[in-house]
Amino acid sequence: MGLVDTLRERGFLYQITDEKRLLEAERSDSLIGYIGFDPTADSLHVGSLVPIMALAHMQKEGHKPIAVLGGGTAMVGDPSGKTEMRKMLLKEQIEAHGKKIERQLAKYLDFEGGGAQIVNNATWLLPLKYIDFLREIGRYFSVNRMLTTESIKQRLGTGLSFLEFNYMLLQAYDFYRLYVDYGCRLQMGGQDQWGNIVAGIDLIRRIEGATAFGITFPLLVNASGEKFGKTVAGAIWLDADKTSPYDFYQFWRNTDDRDVKKFLGLFTFLPMDEVRRLGNLKDRALNRAKEILAFEATRITHGDAAAKEAYLASINQFGSADPKGEIKTSSAIQSIGLDQGASIPTCYYPDAQKSKGIPVIDLFLLSGLTKTKSEARRLIKQGGGYIGNDRIPSIEAVVSRDALSGGGIILRAGKKRVVRIKTKGGQDGE
After folding, report:
1. pTM for the full model?
2. Which domains does the chain have, with CATH numbers?
3. 217's torsion region: left (phi>0), alpha (psi -120 to 50) or beta?
């Protein structure tokens, strides 16, 4: 399967220019393609993961991705998708941000031996002489045509500075320079970048008489129609100092049921057969798919150790969606030997007890989660008693002794206090 087919299957494709010739180009030779990242903050956020993952897939398919740091364009500010002008940053701030973002991108792309490359458009944009640029590049742009592009039309009502109006020329010039200097023939970006990408393709055609290509990704919103990556607490950052790996994990773990399959395709490297299997799970089982999504996304961004720690901390606090290990896990979880229950305190129900129906009140007392049966009754009546993720409906509830075999059950008092209860004679099955 080639790059275009991979991106389409995983949900990345929104628009594509001259698909037939692009398919021919990628079959005949390795492609060089780029995406730009303006360092307007000291970290990228989860909204940047769609373009980052697209570049990673490009590299996995044997092509050469170029990540362009917008050290020059960040001094202007992209008006696309914005209702007002960005805050102007000092050159020193942009350079400092760029260094941090470069380190972040290196977690997803192999810049050492893998053929990926990172370049900074400040190299060619900052030395430009304004009059020379207008004469050599500006003459190829029609103001009438620029005014029809979506990114500019949206801003005309609220106000668009002349500085921002120039952004399209600069991005088109980026594509032209990348074509001339690196042989880059493909630019990818969000759907709001379509006008800028097409402008670059047209500039390459006019000056070089060559064909270049563009791909855009769909604007990502969650199932509720909200902009992806925005929470009550603010943006979810890729920098562990701004958003901890645990909070990063919880962001994915709290994915809406309707988004699980889509996010597994976009934000993990799991094979699509596994994505479809996990995404089609129902009810409680779908929560296991969310755990796998959260683990995989955290592992890619923060590494195996941080993902394992966040995963275990989460199930220690909330319990696992699959305490008995009945749902097949992802290969990555298996590959690092992750034991779901490793950090959960465990107590054992006496083997000598042959009772078939065990009052849940007794289990709370046995586990130490409550000091008395009266306390256990109050906890359950107030809705704070759980088995796994299921609230215990009544103080009369019982648990079968068979349920304590194998991996046992996860008993919870509120959200933070968790104990596993099992029989000593059973196999762990974890």
Report:
1. 0.74
2. 3-217 (3.40.50.620), 230-335 (1.10.240.10), 346-423 (3.10.290.10)
3. beta
